[in-house]
Amino acid sequence: AQTVTQSQPEMSVQEAETVTLSCTYDTSESDYYLFWYKQPPSRQMILVIRQEAYKQQNATENRFSVNFQKAAKSFSLKISDSQLGDAAMYFCAYKGNKLVFGAGTILRVKS
Amino acid sequence: KAGVTQTPRYLIKTRGQQVTLSCSPISGHRSVSWYQQTPGQGLQFLFEYFSETQRNKGNFPGRFSGRQFSNSRSEMNVSTLELGDSALYLCASSYLMTTANTEAFFGQGTRLTVV
């Protein structure tokens, strides 16, 4: 069974600075997708960024980028120029035949 | 384009009762998946429906069931409610099944409290 591990229950970052959230996963599949979702206090899950496992190039979406290390089964999220609106719970997710989520990392942004 | 709509948003039920939650996917989406979110267990997959058929199921007891209608709307039912069923239930819709290269869009969830 696939598992996703987020080892940081909580992280803090100063506004305008950079923060990296960690995620590792375990799978025997070769074809899969990885995601980072953001869940603000409203509880709406919002897709932040996605990565196809067959692509070597790391995905980037504006201030959000990933470091995808397939051999190490690592998928970290880097948020640059952090903003107050980035404060939320962040979930790493693996998609094979179903979405498997990590436990989440609470990100706090200090002004 | 309207997003994923879940009703009701909040629900309070008594132990032993049953409850039905509803999810209307984005127009044109044929896959609906359900997740349970609790502080202790995190986000756990319940089941996925595609074209009115259950395609995948998580590790939940038979008290949890669902169905999908021809218009892709889905309902989830929990019978004989237990205190531990208190959770946020999230629904996600996608154009294709989860196995495909397709993005899942989530609703705002139904907060179920069992007393």
Number of helices of chain B: 0
The major sheet of chain A is characterized as:
6 strands, mixed
Strand percent estimate of chain B: over 45%
Mean pLDDT of chain A: 94
Distance between the termini of chain B: 37 Å
Order of helices and strands of chain A: EEEEEEEEEEEE
Strand content bin of chain A:
over 45%
Biggest interface: A-B, 21 and 23 residues
What's the helix-strand series of chain B?
EEEEEEEEEEE
Task: Write a short abstract of this structure.
By secondary structure, chain A is mainly beta. Chain A has strands spanning 3-5, 10-14, 19-21, 24-26, 33-39, 46-52, 60-61, 64-69, 74-79, 88-95, 99-101, 105-110.
Description:
- The complex is a heterodimer of chains A (111) and B (115).
- Chain A is an all-beta fold.
- Chain A is 0% helix and 53% strand.
- Chain A is globular, with a radius of gyration of 13 Å.
- The mean pLDDT of chain A is 94.
- Chain B is built from no helices and 11 strands.
- In chain B, the strands form 2 sheets. In chain B, strands 2, 4, 5, 6, 9, 10 and 11 form a 7-stranded mixed beta sheet that branches. Chain B has a 4-stranded antiparallel beta sheet with strand order 1-3-8-7, with no helix packed on it.
- In chain B, a hairpin with a 3-residue loop joins strand 4 and strand 5.
- The model of chain B has no long low-confidence stretch (mean pLDDT 94).
- The chains are: A mainly beta (111), B mainly beta (115).
- At the A-B interface, strand 6 and strand 11 of A face strand 5, strand 9 and strand 10 of B.
